[in-house]
Amino acid sequence: MDLIVCHVNADFDCLSSMLGAKKIYHEAIPVFPGSQERKVREFLRTFEPLEIRKVREIDLQSVTRLILVDTKNPHRLGPFSELALSGKVRIHIYDHHPVTEDDLRGELEVIEDAGATATIFTEMLKEQKIPITPMDATVLCLGIYEETGSLRFSSTTERDLLAVAYLLRNGANLNIVSEYIKAELSKAELKLLNELVASSRDLLLYGIRIRIVKASREEYFGDVAHLAHRIMDMEHVDALIMLLAMEGKVVMVGRSRVPELDVAGVLGEFGGGGHPVAASATLKDEPLEVI
Fold this sequence. Notes:
Elements: E1 2-5, H1 12-24, E2 29-31, H2 38-46, E3 65-69, H3 81-85, E4 90-95, E5 108-111, H4 117-127, H5 134-147, H6 158-169, H7 174-181, H8 187-198, E6 201-205, E7 208-217, H9 225-234, E8 239-246, E9 249-256, H10 263-268, E10 273-274, E11 278-284
Parallel strand pairs: 1-2, 1-3, 3-4, 4-5, 7-8
Antiparallel strand pairs: 6-7, 8-9, 9-11, 10-11
Helix pairs in contact: 1-4, 1-5, 4-5, 4-6, 5-6, 5-7
């Protein structure tokens, strides 16, 4: 059995990459290893671009190959981590994140410099002349737009622009994309954003101004990465480290505008990962004050 798996707390780049992988690995079964970001869940309640199975429906003993998309970090695979590290299954990797020492290795690795893994799959589908529907194009576009900040982040490449152009020619619906990428904050999110901003303190290291913000919540709070983008848009700082304590864990989100500060390297010290300009980590059973 072949499985297509992304990282936990799946975003639109995960969803679009799973769709792209399914078109190449026809017999493979897409499976979310854990939770999804709120907007992804909302999208899947309205649209069903591909059938995605639940972990409990999978017999792990029957898995012979893992097709990993948008990650190669074994610690972000949820219940599939042990299987990926066991050496008992073949591994294919498709990812756009920089390579780190802790990464899994695969018998096939497509790890390239692009703003989104969805861009890599869009190029592959185009090169292999695999037809896509307007909905396919829209989902792939969602992945690229989300991961590149609607083509505004410094991690955006020429490849991403060309991929979007191809998807538009194939019927991608930008009205749907804009509905799910640019959303108004809920009351709870706005309250949390205000608390984060109010907690701000700055560190000045080697001329780099780093804003540290933190907050706590008793209940689980879904996707918070977009709040980091909001704060970076509001504040004139070089980098941001956001910490949110909830349900016995601390979520860390890092953003950087300057090449001198690699937030993936910083959060990698806490078991996280990502890009030099955008990264995240999750710590369990660590008090916020200690971190």
